[in-house]
Amino acid sequence: xxxxxxxxxxxxxxxxxxxxxxxxxxxxxxxxxxxxxxxxxxxxxxxxxxxxxxxxxxxxxxxxxxxxxxxxxxxxxxxxxxxxxxxxxxxxxxxxxxxxxxxxxxxxxxxxxxxxxxxxxxxxxxxxxxxxxxxxxxxxxxxxxxxxxxxxxxxxxxxxxxxxxxxxxxxxxxxxxxxxxx
Amino acid sequence: xxxxxxxxxxxxxxxxxxxxxxxxxxxxxxxxxxxxxxxxxxxxxxxxxxxxxxxxxxxxxxxxxxxxxxxxxxxxxxxxxxxxxxxxxxxxxxxxxxxxxxxxxxxxxxxxxxxxxxxxxxxxxxxxxxxxxxxxxxxxxxxxxxxxxxxxxxxxxxxxxxxxxxxxxxxxxxxxxxxxxxxxxxxxxxxxxxxxxxxxxxxxxxxxxxxxxxxxxxxxxxxxxxxxxxxxxxxxxxxxxxxxxxxxxxxx
Amino acid sequence: xxxxxxxxxxxxxxxxxxxxxxxxxxxxxxxxxxxxxxxxxxxxxxxxxxxxxxxxxxxxxxxxxxxxxxxxxxxxxxxxxxxxxxxxxxxxxxxxxxxxxxxxxxxxxxxxxxxx
Lengths: 182, 252, 116
What we know:
The complex is a heterotrimer of chains A (about 180), B (about 250) and C (about 120).
Chain A: H1 2-34, H2 47-56, H3 66-74, E1 79-81, E2 85-88, E3 92-93, E4 99-105, E5 115-122, E6 129-134, E7 142-148, E8 154-162, E9 167-176
Parallel strand pairs in A: 1-9, 3-9
Antiparallel strand pairs in A: 2-4, 4-7, 5-6, 5-8, 8-9
Chain B: H1 2-13, H2 25-34, H3 40-55, H4 57-65, H5 72-76, E1 81-83, E2 88-90, H6 92-102, H7 113-124, H8 139-153, H9 163-167, E3 173-174, E4 177-178, E5 193-195, E6 200-202, H10 204-214, H11 225-240, E7 249-251
Parallel strand pairs in B: 5-7
Antiparallel strand pairs in B: 1-2, 3-4, 5-6
Helix pairs in contact in B: 3-4, 3-7, 6-7, 8-11
Chain C: E1 10-15, E2 24-31, E3 54-61, E4 64-71, E5 80-86, E6 91-99, E7 104-111
Antiparallel strand pairs in C: 1-2, 2-5, 3-4, 3-6, 6-7
């Protein structure tokens, strides 16, 4: 009898814990549903920890930090921020595997005056280069769209080279999160 | 446990920031634009090839289902259905398997690329038609619906969750991942879909099995009475919300 | 899955579907390609999947290149690229890519402007 009582107690305890958990999860769900809050920083891929982890990881052959990539493209020339560049990216990426990026640059795209190339760069992937697009007047518009992989919250930069030899850029930050259930 | 408590605490302190946790309108627009260039379109085109070459196309499907080719698309929009010659409420993927068996071939696994791609193509024939599942068509459908409703609302697994726990209110978000209210989100009409996190086209049942695992539940087997019943229930939610078929979908 | 003995699939789309000479259309290119970074593990074998990504892409009209791209492993799997093109006459747009393992894929789409 004693054994049975113990079993009952354990089962009740189990149920109790389950109920606790259920109620807790219920409240969490309601909190999630009701909350209109800014992203709690801990839910964003933890940035400083990742930096450290990255430094320890074996690097790939294409690895190049942002500053070096920009230098390689501009050869150290001045790059101005410009609002002639319209960079469209999501504020919060629904997932880090497929993040849409669209670049539109105001340009007549004539032989004398056109966008020579658009360079899509990122600030935190070990290879900061995503794509180099060499356009010609046949494109008629300086436009490019693609989708990139982002491991964590970071900036996407559109670096533009003009036919007159000058450079300009625009950047935007994208929040990349862990996501909820899978 | 601690992490979650901390999150709640932070959530509490940041309420006044007012920034919506789920996608903004501008972001939503970007993702809608992505639908126009869905990598799954290529898988669907592949499915079309396989459907023609290995399943003998619409003519064979219409014949198997005992409907005219003209009415095939509309008939497809009403799946899952009770198919008398199969003696069960089934999804179109199971119909494809039955066709293979009838043709003397070995049947493809429900969890295979062949079935996923061909199913996507076949279902896409009904694109823009209303989701028209009829859960009152006969007793078998009624029973399946009741079972599906039960499965949707019953708590199971070590996390003490049911489908309803997470998927009942529109706008529910868990760590920025949308947990769709399936009627409003047209879940019944947008799968098979391209899952961006998998870079692959999968079916609703396959996706549900993954979700069940993540939710701490033993996943229901694809094509089982229970899984089909769940799909019946979910598809009916889309119908109640007057949704149309839009295959392939694009999902996280 | 058997490594591609079949050519990798890709698709070119021109938008809008109806256009005239002088119109600027959008040229969309989607390719089925793993775009493996060389840093991810294969879920089944546990081994690192070697880097396998598209490197160079050329968009041409009747053999004349009008856009060239150099891309890296940060581009999403099953990538999508889109540019504009001003239609000058009837012809063919070709998109050709080469990946870091030497695989080459070529896709063609007819350019058929409507009579003005």
